[in-house]
Amino acid sequence: MIVQLHSPTLRLYESALMRTVTSLVVGDEYLLLVDPNWLPQEVDYIHFETEALREGRECYLLFTHSDYDHIIGYGKFPEFMTIASAAFVHNQQREDTLEQIRAFDDDYYLTRDYPINYPPIVHPIGGDARELTIGEDHYVFYQSPGHNADGLLTFNRSRGILIVGDYLSNVEFPFIYHSLPDYHATLDKLARIVAEEDVKVLVTGHGDHTSDREEMRHRIAESRAYLNRLERSVRRNEIFDAAELTERYGFPRLMRKYHEANLELVRQSAADLP
Questions:
Q1: In terms of pTM, does the model score above 0.90?
Q2: In the chain, where are the structural domains located?
Q3: In what side-by-side order are the strands of the sheet with 58-62?
Q4: CATH 3.60.15.10 is held by the domain 2-271
Q5: Mean pLDDT by 10 residues, the chain (274 residues)
């Protein structure tokens, strides 16, 4: 497993699959683990790291959203106090999500030493700018639907750590599973946070973290530009030339698939408008 960042207060573990990132915030009084994933050996490694750091600290497990790759490691940490959005708790597709995990493990002959369950949430977060003290640190949470329906942005104001889930990746354009307007709104929210708060590091769910404020703003602008072009191509019935996407992000077969899914979602949404 790649350790993307190893500092006294923040560790970032990068999976071999889709450059998916697990975050571990290390406080004096607590640990906050975010989205442990993917492969069994990788989850085992993350578990080993957290066990070595516990030393009487309170342990929390946060889910940025309910996509199966982000909840797949839950069962390895059953004693951790869980945090997610209230929408995560009310997810009506939870059985479909669990079936995706089972199918993934079957496809690759993977076995895990923990059960596959949908995480029960101890601290459901509803509303925006909701504050919570964890250990010695001050956290602020924001709802972030768009990519999917139950996203949650997490800002550790004490340390300037902004964890955004599957937004602002430098290795993916926006993947829209839920709503284009909601995705726009979440980008607006991210822009306000970056402009108004002292964000020292931004952690995305796939790809590289960044401590460069200009890079943060660039990622927001790049995401907005893609969404605007996507919507314009549907409303004007224009061809969206996706060649530059595959040049920018690589992995052309996969990226083409996600782009086509985005187009279809926007077409269906446009068809539903009065």
A1: yes
A2: 2-271
A3: 2-6, 10-14, 21-26, 30-34, 58-62, 81-85, 123-125
A4: yes
A5: 95 98 98 98 98 96 98 97 98 96 98 97 96 98 98 98 98 96 97 98 98 98 95 88 83 92 90 54
